Amino acid sequence: MAKRKGNYGNNKPPVSGQFKPGQSGHPPGRPKGSRNRRKVLEDELNKTVFVTESGRRIRRKKWDVILAQQVNKAVGGDLKATQYIMEQAFKYGLLNLEADGAPAKLNFDEQSVFDDITRRIRASQPPEAPPENQSDENDPPRPPTDEDEQS
Predict the structure, then answer these.
(1) Fewest 10 Å CB contacts: which of 19, 25, 58, 104?
(2) Residue that wins the pLDDT comparison between 97 and 92
(3) 26, part of any domain
Protein backbone atom coordinates (compact mmCIF):
# COMPACT_ATOMS: atom_id res chain seq x y z
CA MET A 1 0.00 0.00 0.00
CA ALA A 2 1.42 3.36 -1.01
CA LYS A 3 1.84 6.04 1.61
CA ARG A 4 -0.17 9.19 1.08
CA LYS A 5 1.14 12.64 1.75
CA GLY A 6 -0.59 14.69 4.35
CA ASN A 7 -2.41 14.02 7.59
CA TYR A 8 -5.85 12.68 6.64
CA GLY A 9 -7.89 9.56 7.15
CA ASN A 10 -11.43 8.81 8.20
CA ASN A 11 -13.59 11.93 7.91
CA LYS A 12 -10.49 14.00 7.13
CA PRO A 13 -10.24 14.32 3.35
CA PRO A 14 -7.34 16.22 1.79
CA VAL A 15 -7.87 19.95 1.47
CA SER A 16 -8.07 19.63 -2.32
CA GLY A 17 -11.10 17.33 -1.94
CA GLN A 18 -12.99 19.45 0.59
CA PHE A 19 -15.91 21.69 -0.34
CA LYS A 20 -15.04 25.34 -0.76
CA PRO A 21 -17.01 27.83 1.35
CA GLY A 22 -20.35 28.64 -0.31
CA GLN A 23 -20.07 25.74 -2.76
CA SER A 24 -22.85 23.18 -3.05
CA GLY A 25 -22.11 19.50 -2.55
CA HIS A 26 -23.64 18.70 -5.95
CA PRO A 27 -23.52 21.82 -8.14
CA PRO A 28 -25.36 20.35 -11.19
CA GLY A 29 -28.10 18.90 -8.94
CA ARG A 30 -31.75 19.90 -8.81
CA PRO A 31 -32.07 23.67 -8.58
CA LYS A 32 -33.60 25.21 -5.49
CA GLY A 33 -37.30 25.88 -5.83
CA SER A 34 -37.86 23.29 -8.55
CA ARG A 35 -40.90 21.08 -8.01
CA ASN A 36 -40.89 17.32 -7.68
CA ARG A 37 -43.52 15.12 -9.33
CA ARG A 38 -45.71 14.94 -6.25
CA LYS A 39 -45.98 18.72 -6.09
CA VAL A 40 -46.68 18.96 -9.83
CA LEU A 41 -49.44 16.33 -9.56
CA GLU A 42 -50.92 17.97 -6.48
CA ASP A 43 -51.00 21.37 -8.17
CA GLU A 44 -52.57 19.91 -11.31
CA LEU A 45 -55.32 18.07 -9.39
CA ASN A 46 -56.13 21.20 -7.39
CA LYS A 47 -56.70 23.34 -10.51
CA THR A 48 -60.31 24.23 -11.21
CA VAL A 49 -62.23 23.47 -14.38
CA PHE A 50 -65.74 24.32 -15.52
CA VAL A 51 -68.18 21.40 -15.72
CA THR A 52 -71.87 21.21 -16.50
CA GLU A 53 -74.05 19.66 -13.80
CA SER A 54 -77.82 19.68 -14.06
CA GLY A 55 -77.61 22.14 -16.95
CA ARG A 56 -75.53 24.67 -14.99
CA ARG A 57 -71.87 25.51 -15.50
CA ILE A 58 -69.97 25.30 -12.23
CA ARG A 59 -66.33 25.33 -11.13
CA ARG A 60 -64.88 22.15 -9.65
CA LYS A 61 -61.40 20.94 -8.81
CA LYS A 62 -60.06 18.30 -11.17
CA TRP A 63 -59.73 15.86 -8.28
CA ASP A 64 -63.45 16.23 -7.49
CA VAL A 65 -64.36 15.67 -11.15
CA ILE A 66 -62.24 12.48 -11.30
CA LEU A 67 -63.87 11.06 -8.17
CA ALA A 68 -67.35 11.91 -9.47
CA GLN A 69 -66.57 10.12 -12.74
CA GLN A 70 -65.36 7.03 -10.85
CA VAL A 71 -68.53 6.96 -8.74
CA ASN A 72 -70.67 7.25 -11.88
CA LYS A 73 -68.75 4.40 -13.54
CA ALA A 74 -69.19 2.27 -10.41
CA VAL A 75 -72.93 2.91 -10.44
CA GLY A 76 -72.96 1.93 -14.12
CA GLY A 77 -71.47 -1.48 -13.32
CA ASP A 78 -67.72 -0.96 -13.87
CA LEU A 79 -66.16 -3.40 -11.40
CA LYS A 80 -62.74 -1.72 -11.32
CA ALA A 81 -64.34 1.63 -10.51
CA THR A 82 -66.51 -0.03 -7.86
CA GLN A 83 -63.47 -1.64 -6.26
CA TYR A 84 -61.62 1.69 -6.24
CA ILE A 85 -64.54 3.59 -4.72
CA MET A 86 -65.08 0.91 -2.05
CA GLU A 87 -61.39 0.95 -1.13
CA GLN A 88 -61.44 4.72 -0.82
CA ALA A 89 -64.68 4.68 1.19
CA PHE A 90 -63.24 2.09 3.56
CA LYS A 91 -59.91 3.94 3.79
CA TYR A 92 -61.62 7.17 4.80
CA GLY A 93 -64.03 5.47 7.21
CA LEU A 94 -67.20 5.86 5.19
CA LEU A 95 -68.18 2.18 5.46
CA ASN A 96 -69.38 0.35 8.56
CA LEU A 97 -69.43 3.39 10.77
CA GLU A 98 -72.16 4.78 12.97
CA ALA A 99 -72.78 8.52 13.14
CA ASP A 100 -70.35 8.84 16.06
CA GLY A 101 -67.57 7.03 14.16
CA ALA A 102 -67.90 3.72 16.03
CA PRO A 103 -68.12 0.46 14.07
CA ALA A 104 -71.66 -0.35 13.01
CA LYS A 105 -73.53 -3.14 14.81
CA LEU A 106 -74.98 -5.99 12.79
CA ASN A 107 -78.74 -6.34 13.00
CA PHE A 108 -80.25 -9.68 14.10
CA ASP A 109 -80.63 -11.08 10.56
CA GLU A 110 -77.09 -10.12 9.53
CA GLN A 111 -75.65 -11.56 12.74
CA SER A 112 -77.54 -14.85 12.30
CA VAL A 113 -76.26 -15.21 8.70
CA PHE A 114 -72.72 -14.46 9.87
CA ASP A 115 -73.00 -16.99 12.72
CA ASP A 116 -74.38 -19.66 10.37
CA ILE A 117 -71.48 -19.20 7.92
CA THR A 118 -68.96 -19.29 10.77
CA ARG A 119 -70.54 -22.48 12.19
CA ARG A 120 -70.46 -24.23 8.80
CA ILE A 121 -66.83 -23.31 8.20
CA ARG A 122 -65.77 -24.56 11.63
CA ALA A 123 -67.79 -27.79 11.29
CA SER A 124 -66.33 -28.72 7.91
CA GLN A 125 -63.36 -31.06 8.00
CA PRO A 126 -60.77 -31.28 5.24
CA PRO A 127 -61.07 -34.53 3.27
CA GLU A 128 -58.81 -37.26 4.56
CA ALA A 129 -55.97 -38.21 2.25
CA PRO A 130 -55.58 -41.94 1.57
CA PRO A 131 -52.55 -43.52 3.23
CA GLU A 132 -49.49 -43.50 0.99
CA ASN A 133 -49.14 -47.29 0.82
CA GLN A 134 -52.82 -47.80 0.01
CA SER A 135 -53.66 -47.26 -3.65
CA ASP A 136 -56.83 -45.71 -4.88
CA GLU A 137 -58.94 -47.82 -7.24
CA ASN A 138 -58.48 -45.18 -9.96
CA ASP A 139 -54.68 -45.19 -9.70
CA PRO A 140 -52.78 -47.02 -12.46
CA PRO A 141 -50.79 -50.07 -11.31
CA ARG A 142 -47.26 -49.27 -10.26
CA PRO A 143 -44.18 -51.44 -10.78
CA PRO A 144 -42.92 -53.28 -7.67
CA THR A 145 -40.09 -51.69 -5.72
CA ASP A 146 -37.36 -53.10 -3.50
CA GLU A 147 -39.47 -52.31 -0.43
CA ASP A 148 -42.33 -54.45 -1.81
CA GLU A 149 -39.99 -57.42 -2.33
CA GLN A 150 -38.62 -57.25 1.25
CA SER A 151 -42.07 -57.46 2.84
Answers:
(1) 25
(2) 92
(3) no
